[in-house]
Amino acid sequence: MLPPVFGRLWARIKRFPWYRFAAGVVAGAPGLALTFFMRLSGIGVFLPEVAVDFTVGRIPGNVESFFIRTMGEGAKLLALITSLTIFLLTPGFYALPYRWIEKRVRNRWIVFALYGLVPSAIVLFAVLPILGAGFLGSLSAAGTTGAVVSQVLSAFLSASIMDYFLVDVASRHPEGFSLSRRQFIVAVGVLIAAAAVTVTGLTTLVTRPARLVFASVQEMVSKEITPNDEFYVVTKNLIDPEVDRASWRLGIDGLVATPASYSLSDLAQRTDSQEELATLECVSNEVGGNLISTARWTGIPLANLLAAAGVTPAADWVAFTCADGYTVGVPLAKATNPSTMVALQMNRDSLPSKHGGPARIIVPGLYGMFHAKWVTRVTLVQGAFFGFWQQKGWTNSEFAGTKERGAIRTTAIIATPAYNAVVSGPVTIGGVALAGDRGIKRVEVSTDGGASWAVATLKTPPLSNLTWVLWTFNWTPPGGGSYRIVARAFDNSVPPDDAQQSVPAPPFPDGAAGYDSIPLLVPG
Fold it and tell me: Looking at residue 49, what is its pLDDT?
């Protein structure tokens, strides 16, 4: 015998119109799927994407950093699953008043039309504006036409399926559908099991960013320049833009004497193209993390394009705008540095779309957030310009006094052997060291947890002063046991301020700090 409180709760559960709710959820899924495929084709709006972008764009940087540190790219996956759940359940609630409307309208086709027009109107006139996509989706990638067509088609597809379940199927079962206590317990059990499977699956995907690791020193040397398909990727987008290379143009405007516009062909035919070997690192990379890669970039010096436009004396910052709405700013002095370029090629291939093709900005020495992908406009402005990530607090302070905002911190990474590897006899420890555009002076290694230090061997010459430097250290363990290997780097700062910061710091707001270390196990 159930206690009275549970009895009343069970009575309310039984009275809930579960069939209508389930019919709405089932009907909503194909409509949502339709908008997803339309979005992939560039002709529609996918609401979960808009919601995730809205959330990512407004979550504070310190909160964002916590999720990135604990979950890596899985944080975005979790946000997507949450958004999908909300937009899948919403049609279930739409379906609840179906009987009430049906009794008052008494015309099946009018009810069908209402369930097609009202949900789409709610999305177009309320949801999209609230989520920053504009009235009727005017600010979305698909524009007003794409937003309206995709949402209306989605709503009518869902309405047709809902009409089938709530009219045709229901008419064949006039006695209705009754949920027994046993069925309810079984249903709850199935939901719990499904949730457990989902959580288990998420834990395999939702992990912290991996360490930078090479199988051997030989592999490290062979991949001193990172292959394009292994180069790290970080993006604010759920779905990255696919920019049409034929119609793409780069505008130079703002505080310039002669605004300019270049097609991809215009830039490719220029004779002032140059190559730069440069290492990029994400500002959210942990010490020892793998969000760091090196490539050979080919493109046009940005200084040349700015000079041709005629920068006015009032301009002192440059703002970059990208096809996905991303913005970021750098000082004019950094933008006109000879190594800063509009890159069109990566490792002598056309710049891949996932790495910002057809063109991106390369600003050696600064964290990856400044290397704007899918760039479409370069605007000269007066005063500091803080873009997408900077507005959330990333790299807004000038740490260590004289260093630039967003300058890559000096760091050494142990990349081989792997973390917790078992080694025996003489072993070669290896890794990379990076100091932005300041260059590496030396790397030191400790095999006793930092009690004593010895100088590592640097690979000379380095690829360039803008890349990581490979280092190795030959070590013979004195005996069996567990050893903590620690590495630190020194750069070529002028005036001298060359020691890698030893005090650990999280990535937010100015990049991670501290010494990288790994345990190695030596059999007794």
Answer: 84
Look up tokens 């000079």; give the residue: 307
Q: Which residues pair with 296 in a beta bridge?
A: 277
| Cα distance between residue 328 and residue 256, in whole Å | 19
Instruction: Please give the tally of structural domains in the chain.
Output: 3
pLDDT of residue 16: 65
Write the burial class of residue 458 (CB in 10 Å: 0-12 exposed, 13-18 middle, 19+ buried).
middle
- For residue 403, the model assigns a pLDDT of 54
Burial code of 95-129, b = ≥16 C-beta within 10 A, e = fewer?
beebeeebeeeeeeeebbeebbeebbeebbeebbb
The rounded radius of gyration (Å) of the Cα atoms in the chain is 28
Record the tokens describing residue 261, joined without a space: 């516009």
Parallel/antiparallel/unpaired status of strands 375-381 and 427-434: unpaired
**What pLDDT shows up at residue 318?**
96
The single-letter code of the amino acid at 431 is: G
> Is residue 325 within 8 Å of 391, Cβ to Cβ?
no
Give the bridge partners for 277, in sequence order. 296
User: Do residue 20 and residue 122 come from a single domain?
Assistant: yes
- Note whether 326 and 243 are same-domain residues: yes
Q: What angle do CA 119, 122, 128 make, to 5 degrees?
A: 120
Residue 55, C-beta contacts closer than 8 angstroms, at least 6 positions apart: 79, 83
Assess whether 171 and 264 both reside in one domain.
Answer: no
**Domain assignment of residue 143, given as a range:** 4-205
Enumerate residue ranges in the chain where pLDDT < 70.
1-16, 61-62, 64-75, 170-209, 397-404, 494-498
Q: What is the DSSP letter of 242?
A: -
Examine the fold and report which residue of 175, 205, 235 is the final residue of a domain before the chain moves on: 205
Residue 373: DSSP 8-state: S
- CA 79 – CA 81 distance, rounded (Å): 6
| Residue 123 and residue 177 in one domain | yes
Query: 367 and 289: one domain?
Result: yes
